Amino acid sequence: MSLPGWLAPYDRDGAIAEAFGVFTRRHALHAAAAGVSAAAGVHGLAADAQAASSSDRGDVAVLNYALTLEYIQAAFYSEAERAGALRGPLAEQARVVGAHERAHVAAFRRVLGTQAVAAPRFDFRGTTEDADAFRKTAVAFEDLAVAAYKDQIPLLQQPAFLAAAVAIHSVEARHAAWIRRLAGVLPAAHAFDDPLPRAEVARLVASTRFVVSRPRTTGAGAPRLTG
Amino acid sequence: MPPGRLTRLLALVAGALVSVAVVAGSLAGSHAAPGAPAGPFAETQTIAIPPPRPLRTDPHLVRWAPVNVATVARSAPRAGAPAVAKVARRTPEGTVDVVLVLGHSHVTPAGVWLRARLPGGRVGWLPRRTLGGYTVVTTRLVVDRRRLTATLLRRGRRVFRAPVAVGRPGSPTPAGRFYVRVALRHYRSPMYGPLAFGTSARAPGVTDWPAGGFVGVHGTDRPELIPGRVSHGCIRLRNADVVRLGRLMTVGTPVTVR
Hints:
The complex is a heterodimer. By secondary structure, chain A is mainly α. Chain A contains 8 helices and 3 strands, in the order H-H-H-H-H-E-H-H-H-E-E. Chain A is about 60% helix and about 5% strand. In chain A, strands 1-2 form a two-stranded antiparallel ribbon. The N and C termini of chain A lie far apart (about 50 Å). The N terminus of chain A is likely disordered. Chain B has 3 helices and 17 strands. Chain B has an 8-stranded mixed β-sheet with strand order 10-9-8-17-12-13-14-16, with helices on one face. The radius of gyration of chain B is 27 Å and the shape is globular. Chain B starts with a helix and ends with a strand. The N terminus of chain B is likely disordered. At the A-B interface, helix 4, helix 5, strand 1, helix 7 and strand 3 of A face helix 1, strand 4, strand 12 and strand 14 of B. Strand 3 of chain A pairs parallel with strand 12 of chain B, so a sheet runs across the interface.
């Protein structure tokens, strides 16, 4: 899988590509050098040949993908709370759900150790500071997370990871129901939910333009300061 | 049966037992008693989800944002309010300019406004749509013109202190609250040393300076003058000190000159 061309401009540091399963040569070398030892350590597996198996690498990729989704959500709710523009039930939802998402980030980062992808940089374009925009965006994020987890959970090989991912998935579903209720949308619209493939999630995330590159605030030009 | 398959089968059985134990525990509405022997879930769980914690209300945390669209800062959060200052997209050195966000967002029927500290030292209101994403910092640089020191704080704790040279009496370093706008390296100007930070402060004594007379925090080719009151308004550090500061301080860091 290669990164779609339209996604590349948003991914100058490679975080999206890494999270969405496009391992660069640098990452491949890093993983080989590490022997996936960090993952093996947290798995509680012996550091034998099995530690570098394709199933472990697959789990690491899935967990990093989940971590990226959690980064987005955690940053979104944290920014909303810091902006302080939400009131009442919406502010409470942002506060509670934000704490959950940050806990999910902490959990994934802990288990992935040095193999955890870095947090992207975000520009939520004012959606954290306007109640109507916040509601719509939060509904989209939570529905997206539920569908993305549903797609990825069957791919996990380690039973313990599976148990944790299911535990998070149901909480994301509660978040979705909560914000749907606040947005006046039916919390459970269908008897069955569909999973959403990675490529489609990537397309949706990119379409928001919420993931941005670092602004160029350093330079090599001659200082024009007073001296 | 090959060992690999056996291991996998055992893992699946353990996973099933885990699920049964979790469901049983949930239905009973109880948790394991303290000191109880750990069940299979406790032994196999490798993702421990920590308890949710509220967002840290850190009094040292501030936010900055890049300027995406050149705009005019206003004295109040509305388009018709008196202009305070023009805000450009670029610094004199060509990098993206930034503002320091103050307080909460202000929602109006016409859009969201932010109160911000601006290049030049003033404070004004900007439309949210003219700015990019926020970045948070927890550092703060304090320059003491009487003691001739620069101190960097992280979350209120001192992590750096060094002697400095500040402006001479005819071109004093201005007192007030400012922030770091740009970091410059690899240029060919020995008088600024190996690293220069541009701040939002403007030196009052050199307003005819080509780029507007902005105050920098930088190294020097005259270390013997530090500490002292010898500059045109800039804050000079010895080169080793400014390099050390460069590892600790980022763009967006508030600067207090007193």
